[in-house]
Amino acid sequence: MNLPQQARPSRHQLLHSRRDFFKTVMGRALAGASILEIAQYQAAWAQALAPTADPTLFEIRKAAEGVYQAFAKPNAILNSNGVIYVNSKEVIIVDSHSRPSSAASLVAQIKKEITDKPVRYLVDTHFHWDHAHGNATYGHLGAKIVASKTTQRLMAETSANRVKGTLEPGGKIALGMASVPTLIEAAKGNLAKASSPADADALKIRLQQLDAYAAEMKNFSPTLPGVTFDKSYKIKDKDFDLILQFNGRAHTAGDTQVYCPSRGTIATGDVAAPFMGDGYPRDWAKTLDTIMKLKFDIILPGHGPIQTDRMQMMGVRNYVEELTARVSAGKQAGQSVADLQKTITMASLKSMANGGDFLAIFGGRTTPTQTQTGINNNILHMYDRLDLK
Predict the structure, then answer these.
(1) Which secondary-structure segment (H or E) carries 41?
(2) Which CA distances in Å does 329 have to 324, 336, 367?
(3) Which residue, 370, 368, 378, 369, is CA-closest to 337?
(4) Tens of pLDDT, residues 53-107
(5) What is the pLDDT of residues 341-356, one digit of tens each?
(6) Which of 76, 149, 225, 254 has its Cα between 20 and 30 A from that of 53?
(7) Smallest Cα–Cα separation from 119: which of 96, 151, 152?
(8) In sequence order, which residues have a C-beta less than 8 Å from that of residue 128 and are 6 or more positions away?
């Protein structure tokens, strides 16, 4: 129902209301924090409160009773999806996205759209930048941050340096990330030759998003999980239990899935996302086989929409298995990466038949050229990771 003009809250009132909320959720969370920690945390919340910020970075979709997907909207710097569990007394969130301000924005959106119950747990499915770099927000809210021991170690070893390299001109580009200075220069160049006001406006928004990310992450230091496990960890509640499981190496060495038996749902992170940069090709299909032995009807992936069947997961499983066999045989025969990229085509892969498109998980179907580029990148990364111990 449309409100009469005089009843509609002004932009100032909306921002004032949002500021009140953020002050409330901060509470005593900053007690004992260092000056640097306080400054970084306040900067993250300021990003979420800025007049130019999109207050809804996610589209919240109900998957089952008490289970929601936070579907990430397009952004110049990718956010992962989130998964939200609301039980009898608290909220559990899966993954914290690419920066603290994104996590702060989601907390505000949950408060507005779902519940005012406190967020007590954050689960990191793996250590990648688009899934775990917003951890600080939840740490300052006093939530328990949970992950596999391997994910905690990988986060400590890699996260800060990967972000630093991505922000520096000429820096070492992190796997799966783009050079932010390069993206900024490209956007400026495109803006200078924009063919319409709409294109110019879109590029200005993109530049704002890139600049904001660079400013926010300039002094990034990872907030590590404080609760870790080897194989499993259970969060019990009278409404439903959540079982956090490490079922084997796949997308990374520490992938965690969040299984809710009573709701028939599983949050998978990127275990069915065919990015090989930190992957374990020889383990991957077996890990997916283990996961698919569980009883679930609804899959909540780290990217892409809610899935109500296992077709995509099975497709990724078959693709990884087939590509691993092809690359392994070629490498043993003395073929180079370039040789394999010429011979292993989309048309030659049985797992890609019938319009199969493994990149659809990232938000839309791709052209044959884009899909082949994805296959070539997988071959490049897989070549040196075939026999990791």
Answers:
(1) helix 35-49
(2) 8, 11, 28
(3) 378
(4) 445 899 999 999 999 999 999 888 889 999 999 999 999 999 999 999 999 999 9
(5) 999 998 899 988 765 5
(6) 225
(7) 96
(8) 80, 176, 252, 270, 278
The closest alpha carbon to 47, from 112, 126, 133, 117, belongs to 133
Residue with tokens 């907030």: 223
Q: What is the DSSP letter of 295?
A: -
Distances (CA, A) of 17 to 13, 20, 96, 223: 6, 5, 24, 28
**Dist CA 58 CA 3 (whole Å):** 24
Look up residue 285 and give its two tokens.
Answer: 């299909």
Q: How far apart are alpha carbons 301 and 360 in whole angstroms?
A: 12
Q: Which two tokens stand for residue 277?
A: 């940069």
Gap between the Cα atoms of 334 and 255, Å rounded: 32
Spatial separation of the C-alpha atoms in residues 268 and 291, rounded to whole Å: 9
DSSP annotation of 143 reads: P
Domains identified in the chain and CATH numbers: 10-308 (3.60.15.10), 312-389 (no CATH)
List, for residues 166-195, the tens digit of each pLDDT value. Answer: 898 876 665 656 789 988 998 999 999 999
Amino acid at 299: I
Length of the chain counted residue by residue: 389
Supply the DSSP string of 201-248, one letter for each residue.
Answer: HHHHHHHHHHHHHHHHHTT------SEEESSEEEE--SS--EEEE---
